[in-house]
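Thread: (6S)-5,6,7,8-tetrahydrofolate complex, take 2
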Amino acid sequence: MFEITQHTRLRRSPFYDATVAAGVTSFMTYNQMLLPTGYGDPEAEYWRLIEGVSMWDVAAERQVQIAGPDAARLVQMLVARDLSKCVVGQGRYVPLCNHDGTLINDPVLLKRADDCFWLSVADSDMLIFTRAIAGERGLDVQITEPDVSPLAVQGPKAEDTIAGLFGDWVRDLKYFWFEDATLEGVPVVVQRSGWSKQGGFEIYLRDGTRGTELWNVIAEAGERYGIGPGNPNPCERVESGLLSWGGDTDDDTNPFEVRLGRYVDVEREYAEEIVGLQALRRINEEGPKRYQIGVVLDGDTPEPSNAVWLPIEHNGARVGHMTNGVWSRRLKRNIGFALVSRDVTVGSRVDVVKDGQRVGAETVWLPFI
Ligand code: THG
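Output below.
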């Protein structure tokens, strides 16, 4: 075995010590941070999310704060979605594209004030990109990475857990809406959000020195509901059809190909200043060449999870890739997303090629559940 060298370019979460104490067994990197990926009991971690409540260190979902007189204008230039009706206290899922209309991130946007926004980003460097656009356009903004670290609380018992801590007002929060709050003196933002379809909240810690405190307070409040540690769950998110940017996308993927077309507003004011909008209009008119559907593999023996793009063939010809693969504990089948040519219809037979072997599969619509 080898060690991972400690270095400032591999940043630790404020919840790092708490996750070690909770028995974390694996990490991956995400936004140059360590993101926990397991606690040694995948079966229990899955069912805790489906039936109870699970808490996740997702501090690696970093915030890019855009503040200043031109903040609103810059945000509208950057994201594919019209935000004219987004109010302070509201969040939105906002595909972010480059000039070619290629999806380069899929942040959750938080409108903190009329002149202050957070982009809660997936794993690509949005500080560099947003600063470059602001600089080229001569905009009056300050772009920073604030001391903010999300902790997700997910599952059917998440609402009771969070209401027990903050009060019943959290039950009235609409999806992606948020409120500032304090928890035993720890400053946080509470948002109804999270990368699962089991319901829940994200608690954004606003003081990186108090991660262990926040973790422990939530763990204690959730004890009566059987809370335990977890992480963005590969099985649940595939069953639920949630996109993993950088996992299910490649260097050429546009939002229309991966079911995000409904978050792209091609008819917009000031269209000429919106990054990538001309390209997105063209792609939308021509129709994307690929699309994202599901595959259900033949057989009912669990295969190890697969994060490698596997070729898919249809009538012997290469038509795309399976971009992830998991054993579905609810469907009792091996399933995955496929990014394939539009010529492959849903309900077709295809072959997934793994280690030179062909495994038969059927194409289906997403989500699986
Ligand atoms: N939470 C926060 N930041 C994040 C993520 C998160 N940043 C990175 C990554 N995850 C962004 N990706 C997603 C993808 C999907 C959703 C949220 C973040 C999501 N989608 C819902 C769906 O697809 O059904 C709702 C979308 C809608 O209709 O508005 O929630 O998890 N803080």
